[in-house]
C-alpha cells in the first residue's frame, strides 16, 4: 500500500524529484523529471547522475552530496546564486529570455528503518515564471516606457554609483544633457503622437551613437542625459557633437511628412567645482540653457 501511494504522489507532484544512492546512481526519477529532461525513467535509473548530466560532475555538487550522506544535512541551491542544476529548457506560457529553466533546488537525506542514511533526494522547483515576472517589474521600475532607455530614477542610481567610483579611483566622468529644440511646436503642429514618435526616433539615433558603457536616460519630457564614465570633457564634447549632427541631419518621416528637428546640448565634467550629482547636473543644465539662448542646435561646455 505504502509503495503504491508513494509512487502516485511521487509522479503527481508538480516539482522534480530525484533519489540517488550512495554511489550517486539514480534510483527514482519522477514524471516531472521525465517531462522536462525528455529522458524516460528506464533510461536513467541505474545511471550515475553525472553521466546523465555532466555539468553535475563539479566539486560543489559532489561535495554537497557527500555532506548529506555524512552528516545528514540539507543543502540548498538557490536560483539567484546557481540559476539551475539541471539544464532543462524553460517551458512556459510567456516569452522568456532564459536559455535554461531557472531552478531552486533542495537536497536532503532519506533514512531507512534503522535510521541510517541510505539515499538522498533532490527536489527541483521551476522558478522561471517568478524570476521572469520579477525582472519585468524591475525593468518597469528603471526603464522609460516610451523610449526604452533608463528613466530618471534609474539614472540617479547610476550617477551616484559612477561618482562613487570616480571618488575612489579618480577616473574621469562627464555628462551630456540635451533637449529637443522647439518640441512644443512639433506637438502643436503634428500632434502628440508625432511628438512621441520623434522622441523615440531621437532616442534610437542617440543610442546607436553612444559607446559601450555610456548610460543614456530620459530625464524628463523632451530632456535626456547621457552619463559618460571614463570620459574626459574633451571626449564628451566630441560625442555631443556627434549627437547634435546625427539628429540635425536626420529627416523624421511621420505619416508622409518630413520633419526636421534639432537638439541643444550642455556638457559638464567632474572637477573641484562639481563633486556631487546635483553639481554635475547643474553645470550641464547651465550649459544647455546657454546653448538654447545662443540660438539652439549647438553645444555649450561648462568647465
How would you sum up this structure, described in words?
The chain is built from twelve helices and twelve strands. By secondary structure, the protein is α+β, with helices and mostly antiparallel strands. The chain has two domains: 2-134, PAS domain (Beta-Lactamase); 146-301, Alpha-Beta Plaits (2-Layer Sandwich), CATH 3.30.70.270. The strands form three sheets. A five-stranded antiparallel sheet has the order 2-1-5-4-3. Helix 9 crosses helix 10 and helix 10 packs across helix 11. The radius of gyration is 29 Å and the shape is elongated. The protein is 45% helix and 23% strand.
Q: What global shape is seen? A: elongated
Number of strands: 12
Order of helices and strands: HEEHHHHEHEEHHEHHEEHEEEHE
| Mean of residue pLDDT values | 94
Amino- and carboxy-terminal Cα gap:
83 Å
Given helix and strand content, the structural type is alpha+beta
Q: Mind telling me the C-alpha Rg? A: 29 Å
Strand order of the largest sheet: 2-1-5-4-3
CATH architecture of the largest domain: 2-Layer Sandwich
Counted by DSSP, the helix tally is 12
Helical residue percent band: 40-55%
What's the CATH topology name of the largest domain?
Alpha-Beta Plaits
Report the β-strand fraction as a percent range. 15-25%
CATH superfamily of the largest domain: Reverse transcriptase/Diguanylate cyclase domain
Largest sheet: 5 strands, antiparallel
Low-confidence stretches: none
Tally of structural domains: 2
Amino acid at each position: 500500500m505504502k509503495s503504491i501511494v508513494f509512487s502516485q504522489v511521487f509522479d503527481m507532484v508538480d516539482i522534480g524529484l530525484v533519489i540517488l544512492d550512495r554511489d550517486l546512481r539514480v534510483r527514482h526519477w519522477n514524471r516531472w523529471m521525465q517531462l522536462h529532461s525528455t529522458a524516460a525513467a528506464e533510461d536513467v535509473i541505474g545511471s550515475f547522475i553525472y553521466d546523465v548530466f555532466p555539468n553535475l560532475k563539479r566539486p560543489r555538487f559532489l561535495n554537497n552530496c557527500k555532506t548529506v550522506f555524512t552528516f545528514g544535512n540539507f543543502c540548498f541551491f538557490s536560483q539567484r546564486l546557481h540559476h539551475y542544476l539541471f539544464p532543462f529548457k524553460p517551458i512556459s506560457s510567456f516569452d522568456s529570455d532564459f536559455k535554461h529553466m531557472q531552478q531552486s533546488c533542495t537536497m536532503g537525506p532519506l533514512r531507512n528503518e534503522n535510521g541510517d542514511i541510505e539515499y538522498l533526494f533532490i527536489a527541483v522547483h521551476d522558478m522561471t515564471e517568478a524570476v521572469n515576472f520579477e525582472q519585468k517589474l524591475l525593468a518597469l521600475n528603471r526603464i522609460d516606457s516610451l523610449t526604452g532607455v533608463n528613466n530618471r530614477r534609474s539614472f540617479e542610481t547610476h550617477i551616484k554609483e559612477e561618482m562613487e567610483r570616480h571618488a575612489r579611483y579618480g577616473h574621469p566622468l562627464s555628462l551630456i544633457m540635451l533637449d529637443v529644440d522647439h518640441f512644443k511646436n512639433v506637438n502643436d503642429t503634428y500632434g502628440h503622437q508625432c511628438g512621441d514618435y520623434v522622441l523615440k526616433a531621437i532616442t534610437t539615433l542617440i543610442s546607436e551613437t553612444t559607446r559601450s558603457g555610456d548610460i543614456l536616460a530620459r530625464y524628463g519630457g523632451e530632456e535626456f542625459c547621457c552619463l559618460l564614465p571614463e570620459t574626459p570633457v574633451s571626449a564628451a564634447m566630441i560625442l555631443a557633437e556627434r549627437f547634435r549632427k546625427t539628429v540635425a541631419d536626420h529627416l523624421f518621416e511621420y505619416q508622409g511628412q518630413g520633419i526636421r528637428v534639432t537638439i541643444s546640448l550642455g556638457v559638464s565634467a567632474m572637477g573641484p567645482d562639481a563633486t556631487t550629482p546635483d553639481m554635475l547636473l547643474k553645470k550641464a543644465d547651465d550649459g544647455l540653457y546657454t546653448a538654447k539662448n545662443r540660438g539652439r542646435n549647438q553645444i555649450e561646455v561648462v568647465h
